[in-house]
Amino acid sequence: MSNDFLNVFLNEMKTNVNGFIAIAVTEIESGLSFGNLSLDPSFDPELAAAYNLEVVKAKLNAVKALNLNQEIEDILITLSSQIHIIDISPNKKFMIYLAADSTKANLGMTRAILKKHKLELEKNLA
């Protein structure tokens, strides 16, 4: 399987998200990283995604245990100078972890850009 679509996705996010810091695409079941990209050499998006995978698994279990009959669209973590968005694919096969500088990023626009560019990614990773 060619990773061209993945590289296109990662670069589209880097180009279009104001304040972009890093991104990673990770398989939820195994924790396998499909790909990642960071503008900050000290920020390891693969490691960050691995830790945040535990958050995703816990939230998926909580939704199931509570019989909420809801789908998780994304999980937002707000730090003092960064926003971290964890977007879960509808089939729960993979997650997208995105970090951006909160002084430059617009949360609504960032989420819209992520959703728009995720469509092609979903077709190829489903």
Structure description:
The protein is 42% helix and 27% strand. It has 126 residues and is of the alpha+beta class. The protein has one domain (1-125): Beta-Lactamase (2-Layer Sandwich). Strands 2-1-5-4-3 form a five-stranded antiparallel beta sheet, sandwiched between helices. Helix 1 (4-16) runs antiparallel to helix 3. The longest helix has 21 residues, at 45-65. The chain is globular and about 40 Å long. It starts with a helix and ends with a helix. This is Roadblock/LC7 domain-containing protein. It comes from Flavobacterium cupreum.
List the helices and strands and how they pair.
Blueprint: H1 4-16, E1 20-27, E2 33-38, H2 45-65, E3 74-78, E4 82-88, E5 94-101, H3 107-125
Antiparallel strand pairs: 1-2, 1-5, 3-4, 4-5
Helix pairs in contact: 1-3
Protein name: Roadblock/LC7 domain-containing protein
Organism: Flavobacterium cupreum
Features:
single chain, 126 residues, alpha+beta, Beta-Lactamase, 5-stranded antiparallel beta sheet, 42% helix
Question: How would you summarize this macromolecular structure in one to three sentences?
Answer:
The chain is of the alpha+beta class and 126 residues long. The chain has helices at residues 4-16, 45-65, 107-125; strands at residues 20-27, 33-38, 74-78, 82-88, 94-101. This is Roadblock/LC7 domain-containing protein.
